[in-house]
């Protein structure tokens, strides 16, 4: 096979070498071109995805305000990858074009575009979710589950007491819904490690935990470890006996009336007392004097009667037009000034106070009756 040679300024090249060099150059250029176009396409896709996510979040917030639901309940049907959304130089305008409010119209003035997107409002209810990632076989303890808004269904309406002490069949993730199918058919029960006399206040060294089949445990009678620790024995308990509602009275902090409180009277510290109670109490019982705050009785209360939120009407710590002592702290310096409340407020509320000399308004936090602070 003959090979031609080309001579350029004293250098000789074969036609085969030239063809190979040209081929490599062309292929390299093609690869670089494809890589550049791929990068440009990827960047464009990322920008579009970011714009789409921003629009979805804006729609969720707008629909949430319009329908008085949380934004997380709004599902926007915008997953089609062919949907290209140009960034809007101003805030998009939203409206419901149909009376059934299942379509949201989103429009932009610059650049000019309009989209109609279907939405769905997911009904939510309070349910249990896991508070962390847990492996299979773990026994669920207090703090491992918490209440959260979950999609409404009737499949798993579980109470905390039905979950604590149960084992996990599989590993779970934080935020995952607690369901029967994830829980093993075993539960933790607590037994007395010593003989316990009636009236004894239990401590953690008086009992131990033991895993037992769920079917052998009475429903609704089990207590958690924290409920048993500090509870009172309602009768004599033998060593090895299961601790439950039949022999243990859990402790509660509660506010009790110490004398007759007539309807309409302000409930002050001289008429009530915070104390520990063993046994069952109403669900709405006031647990501390701090929680009670300033309040009046809406019905007569007798000595020894627990004070319930349904028995009282809260009083604002500050009323509109009242003079309030505002305390301002700057390092080691503390300054107090009397100002007028422009609105009523309870302890912890942020209200506006008016300087009666200059008419200047300032924000302050109510700290007590007639008192407020500002950092």
SSE topology sketch:
Blueprint: E1 5-8, E2 11-14, H1 15-67, E3 74-76, E4 93-95, E5 103-108, E6 113-121, E7 124-130, E8 145-151, H2 160-163, E9 186-192, E10 207-213, H3 225-228, E11 232-233, E12 248-249, E13 251-257, E14 272-278, H4 289-292, E15 295-297, E16 312-314, E17 323-330, E18 333-341, E19 350-354, E20 361-368, E21 371-374
Parallel strand pairs: 17-21
Antiparallel strand pairs: 1-2, 3-6, 4-5, 5-6, 7-8, 9-10, 11-12, 13-14, 15-16, 17-18, 18-19, 19-20, 20-21
Give a written overview of the molecule.
This protein has 375 residues and is α+β, with helices and mostly antiparallel strands. It folds into five domains: 5-44; 124-182, Type Iii Antifreeze Protein Isoform Hplc 12 (Alpha-Beta Complex), CATH 3.90.1210; 186-248, Type Iii Antifreeze Protein Isoform Hplc 12; 251-314, Type Iii Antifreeze Protein Isoform Hplc 12 (Alpha-Beta Complex); 323-374, SH3 type barrels (Roll), CATH 2.30.30. It contains four helices and 21 strands. It has a five-stranded mixed barrel. A four-stranded antiparallel beta sheet has the order 3-6-5-4. A hairpin with a 2-residue loop joins strand 20 (361-368) and strand 21. Mean pLDDT is 82; it is low at 1-13 and 34-46.
């Amino acid at each position: 096979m003959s090979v031609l040679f080309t001579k350029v300024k004293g250098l000789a090249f074969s036609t085969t070498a030239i063809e190979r060099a040209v081929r490599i150059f062309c292929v390299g250029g093609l690869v670089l071109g494809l890589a550049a176009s791929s990068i440009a396409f990827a960047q464009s896709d990322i920008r579009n995805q970011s714009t789409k996510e921003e629009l979805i979040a804006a729609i969720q917030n707008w629909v949430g305000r319009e329908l008085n639901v949380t934004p997380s309940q709004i599902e926007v049907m915008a997953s089609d990858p062919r949907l290209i959304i140009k960034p809007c130089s101003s805030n998009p305008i939203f409206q419901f074009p149909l009376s059934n409010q299942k379509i949201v119209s989103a429009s932009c003035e610059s650049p000019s575009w309009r989209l109609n997107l279907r939405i769905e409002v997911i009904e939510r209810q309070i349910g249990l979710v896991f508070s962390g990632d847990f492996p299979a076989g773990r026994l669920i303890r207090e703090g491992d589950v918490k209440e959260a808004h979950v999609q409404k269904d009737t499949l798993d309406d579980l109470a905390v007491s039905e979950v604590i002490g149960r084992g996990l069949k599989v590993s779970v993730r934080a935020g995952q819904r607690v369901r029967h199918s994830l829980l093993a058919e075993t539960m933790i029960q607590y037994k007395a490690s010593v003989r316990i006399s009636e009236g004894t206040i239990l401590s953690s060294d008086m009992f131990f935990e033991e895993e037992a089949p769920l079917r052998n445990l009475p429903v609704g009678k089990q207590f958690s470890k924290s409920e048993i620790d500090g509870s009172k024995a309602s009768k004599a308990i033998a060593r090895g006996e299961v601790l439950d509602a039949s022999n243990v009275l859990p402790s509660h902090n509660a506010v009790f009336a110490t004398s007759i409180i007539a309807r309409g009277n302000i409930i002050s510290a001289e008429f009530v007392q915070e104390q520990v109670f063993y046994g069952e109490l109403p669900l709405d019982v006031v647990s501390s004097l701090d929680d009670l705050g300033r309040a009046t009785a809406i019905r007569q209360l007798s000595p020894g009667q627990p004070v319930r939120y349904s028995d009282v009407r809260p009083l604002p710590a500050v009323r509109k037009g009242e003079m309030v002592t505002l305390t301002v702290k700057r390092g080691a310096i503390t300054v107090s000034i009397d100002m007028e409340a422009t609105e009523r407020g309870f302890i912890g509320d942020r209200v506006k106070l008016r300087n009666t000399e200059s008419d200047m308004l300032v924000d302050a936090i109510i700290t007590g009756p007639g008192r407020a602070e500002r950092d």
